What we know:
Elements: H1 3-23, H2 28-35, E1 39-41, H3 44-75, E2 100-104, H4 105-135, H5 141-170, E3 175-176, H6 178-184, H7 196-204, H8 208-220, H9 226-237, H10 239-248, H11 250-255, H12 261-287, H13 295-322, E4 333-339, E5 345-350, E6 358-363, H14 374-390, E7 396-402, H15 422-441, E8 449-455, H16 457-468, E9 476-480, E10 497-501, H17 523-536, E11 538-539, E12 542-543, E13 553-554, H18 586-596
Helix pairs in contact: 1-3, 1-4, 2-3, 2-4, 3-5, 4-5, 6-9, 7-8, 9-15, 12-13, 13-14, 14-18, 15-16
Amino acid sequence: MATGQTAELEAALSRVIRLADEHATALDAPMRSMAASAWVGGGAPAFSKALNEQRTAMQRAFQEAAEQIAARIRQAGGQAPQLPPLSTSVNVMTAARTGFSGMDVAAMEGLVTSLQRAGQELPEAGHRLSAELSALCLPASSGKEVAGAGEWSQEQVRDLRRRLSMIQQEHDSGLASKAMAGFGLFGGYAPDPGGVSKLTAAAGNGDAAALKALVALQNTGKDATLANRLNAWWAQLGKAAQDRLIKQSPQLVGSLNGLPSATRDQANRTYLAAEKTWLNSEIARLSGQLSDHSPPELMLRKAKIEELKLKQRQLESIEKALARGGKNGLPETYLLQVELGGLGKTAISFGNPDKADNIVAYVPGTGTKLETFAGDAKRASDMWARAHTFDPDKKIASIAWLGYAAPQWGDAGLTHTPGTLGDARAGAPLLASFADGLHAAHQAASNTRFTVLGHSYGSTVTGVAAQMRPQSFADQLIFVGSPGVTAMHAKDLGVGSVWVGEAPNDPVGDIGSLGRINQAPDPVGAVPALISGVLSGEGPFGSDPSRSEFRANRFYVPDSGDSLLGFKGHSSYWGKDERSWDQRSTSLWNIGRLINGQYDELIPFPELSPQLVPSSAAAPSTVPQSKLIEEPTSQRSPFSRPAGE
């Protein structure tokens, strides 16, 4: 080859190396942002992998182009210079976790800005590289690789600008919520079990079947990320689409864990009002035609009327519970779930959990049903009143959660009884999913305390649910009157702070030490099982949580003075005042302090021992009776306890 041709190749090689030197690092800055954990959780690992693949392919393209020209120089008899390395080294984020750690919005803005710069530079660089290669009759595929990395960057920027703008409007603190961090950005890169992306896209267009499928999927409790996905999806819909869905399918929208509590309240109250009107008219219509039917038809029609009247009573029970809010110092109530018929389901919060500093969700036990839910709502409001009195500067939300079918006494058959785990295993996924929703909808804050309090069989449901979400279910568990939580030790629950309270005259709290008598083959076999349980502490639902071997923190609950046979001690944890919250209740005092994390203010056991209080805080040695009496803040209205516990 002529010397002039060799010089031309060398000049072209020099231009390609210079082009690579200017643009091969275009995606390094976004990679460094990801490596520095500007955003962690959800689809972050998958996006980081895609970003690194684009960066590697682009740098390899520059390298291959230079090597092609160098090979042509050698073929022409020239001396090709030693090529400099055209790739760079950046630590790649490889975290595969699916939890959520939040996001530094300012850092993400920097990432998007650097992506935008790469999107502007790389296509032009790719075209110039293709031109250099084509002029030398070499394949131009390397140039297309470089330009492709730029086009990919442009696609990310268009979507991210819109999403970041929305996040900045909702989170002025500079830290996005965990849900938005996980799925509000790069949502397409996040794992998609159950085909959630297709379902949310269809639901956003008004497909009620897709909404039903989402509710069914969340009720399995299998996807711990679903509530976060739904939270991000809802935020991105826009108000017009949100209002349309609430109008078309209020109960389904109100059932979706992860949506804002105010949205769920609006949707569920819309449904409740429409259902109330329909029930009244339908009962009147059916009652007015009873004489027009044959005996078999008449029997069916009367059964239908009774079914509707049950729903009517359940609806009235919800209305009565909601009416407690906004009066005599109590905060407004939020209706987070409604399901009429059968035993019924609901969830009512005193205070907005999305904005609360301290949140407690109360899970009731055996005998609870929606028709008599007013007493359970009062317990939630009592806990709010006591916790608020102890820390009035904190925002508190207290939730009564009847989101599962609680076992009933005497009429439930062999598998739907308080003596088996069937109802706990069926209810735990529902509670785990509900907790997912509270985490997802909560506005970003660093010092929020989320407590789940399980009473009686509700503690068993809580124990199973906690083990479904280790390290992410709650910050604290409180068990009162617990027959067992399906764990042998507190650490098995995967929650850092576990507290147990048991009244000395509560017979249910001792079931945990009765052995596995429900599994004995016959009455004779129950005796060894009973002896074994007393010795080992292993009962039908795991170890007795009140035993020292369980290694939970214990708080003082005094004897209520009631007979063991009357079971009143089992309902004494909220005091005895059925009109207002019981200011003299030692147990309620301690529950309120626990909700706030005020461990050093607990009323101690009469005889202290080191294992009875947390090592980080000593309980006060004495508490004057006068200290228990304060001005009530809750509503004074007559209520009777629920027929169950």
